[in-house]
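Posting for a labmate who doesn't have an account.
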Amino acid sequence: MVTNLDHADELAAPLDLLLTSSAVGIGRRMLPNNSWSRLAVQLARRPGVVGGRVSSLGQELVDIARGRSQRAPAKADKRFADPAWQGNPLLKRSMQAYLAAGDTAEQLLTDAHLDWRDDEWMRFVVDNVLEGLSPSNNPLLNPLGWKALIDTGGLSAVRGLRHFAGDMASAPRVPAMVEANAFTLGENVAATKGSVVLRTEVFELIQYAPQTDKVRTIPLLMVPPVINKYYVMDIAPGRSMIEYFLSQGQQVFAISWRNPTAAQRDWGFDTYGQAIVDAMDAVERITGCERTHLQASCSGGILAAMTAAHLTEIGQDHRLASLTLMVTVLDQSHAGFAAAAIDEETAKMAIAVSARKGYLDGRALAEVFAWLRPTDLVWRYWVNNYLQGRAPAAFDVLFWNADTTRMAAALHRDMVMLGVHNALTVPNSVRMLGTPVDLSRITVDSYVVAGLTDHISPWQACYRSARLLGSKDLRFVLSTSGHIAALVNPPGNPKAAFRIGPTDQADPGAWVDAAPQQSGSWWPDFTLWLADRSGPQKDAPATLGTAELPPLQPAPGKYVLAH
C-alpha cells in the first residue's frame, strides 16, 4: 500500500467515482481493460528491468526459505502483529514471501512509467489484489483464528460461519463493521436536545436547545451530506460538533434529509437547493435575524456552494453571514482514481442503472467505500468476524456509516455529470434554481476544512476548490485526520493537529510546507472565527420554534429513522 502523503490526492476517490461505481459495481474496476494492456506493453519494453526485479525476488525467496531473510512488516502494519508471525517458521516465511512479492509488484508498476490515468487504475487493482492475498486473511494460516478455535472449543468457527452467511445474504456483502443494534438514535447517538421545527417533503429542520444563558445573534445552519444521515455532526455526547457549538453560545439548526424512495426519483439539484433556501427562510423567521451562517460537508457542501452562488446571482447574498465547507470537493481535476476511472460511457451506464430503480442504493455506496480501504474496512473485519468469530466492536462512527441512505435518481445523475465534466470549475456551465453558477462571485467570508489523510475528498482537491471561491476573507484548515475524523474532531485529543492559513498559494504542497502545524482540534478556532461574525450576544430563547413554526417532535426527528 502506498502511504506517501505527497500523492494523497492521486490515491483518493471523490464523489463521481463513488456514485458511478456504486451503480455499476466496484468489481468492474478490477476487470482487464486497456490499462492492463498498456502495462504489459510497457513492461515488455523493459525486459532488463523486469528480469532484474524477478531475479531479485527469486533470490530473496531462496533466502526466505533458508531462514536468512531480514524482511519484516512495517511498524504500522497491524496484520502481522501476533507473535506467531515471527516465532513460527512457516508463518514467518509465508509472511516474508508475501511482503517480498508485494514489493516487487509495486516496483514493477512504478517501473512501467504509465501515464497517470493508467497508473491510477492499475494501482487500484494491484493494491486490492495484494490486500486480498495477504496470509493474514487465510483461515489456515492466521494464528488468531486458530487461537480463537482452541479457546472457544470450536464455537468461534460456528459464529464465524454465521456472521459470514448473514453478511453475504444482502448488500453490501462485506464484513459488518458494527452490529445493527449497537446504538440507539436519540439515546447514545444523535442525542443533543432539540426539536423538529419544520418538516417538508424533502427535509426536517432541527433547532437545538441553547446550552448557555446568552447566544450569538446570527444563527448557524448545518447542511449534511445527501448520501449519509445528518448525525455525523451529532455523533455522541462529548464528541458532538453540534453540542460543542451550542456550548460556545452559538444558535444551531440542522437539516435532516428525507431518505428518498423511487417515488422521489425526480429530486435533483434544484430540489435540494430550494430545500436549503427554505431552511434558511425558517431559520430567519425563528431567530428574527436576516442573516445565517451556512455550514455544509461533503456532497452537502457542493449543494450549499451552488445555492450560495444562486443567492449571489439573484442579489440575496446579504442573507449569508459566512460559508463553511468541510471535506468538500468542487474541483475534480486530477483528483485521483476517480478522474482516471470515470468516462462518459461509464457515467451514462451508472445513470441508467439508478434511473431504472429510481434511486442509488446506499448499501452499494457502502460497498464502494469499503473496497477503497480494504485493509481497514474489509480484511480487518474478515479476520475479526469470520476467522475469530467475534462481534465487531461498537463504534459510533461506523454505526453511522452503516446507517445508509438512498440517493434520488435525478440527484445521482446531476452529481455524476457534474463530476465528469468538472462543471463547477467553469463559470456558468451548470445551473442552480434557474441561475448560472459562478463560484468566483461568492464573496462572503469562508472557512474551508480538509483532512490530510482523507481518501474520499483529497485535501489538495479541497484546497483547489477553496480557491474557486471569490471570498476575500478565506480561511483554509487542514486537519491531520481522514474524511470523518476531520469532522468528528473534539478538543482533548492529544494526537489531533491542524494547519491553518489563507489560500494564497497556487500549489497545495507549497501551502502545506509554509503553514505551521498547531496542536489540538480546529473546533475552537472555528467557533472564535464564527463568533467574530455572529453579532452581539442576546438572551437565549426560552422556547424553540415560534407560533408559526412550533416544535413538531423531539430531535432527532422522524426522517433519520427511515431505512
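Reply:
Got it, the C-alpha cells are right above this. The two ends are 35 Å apart (CA to CA).
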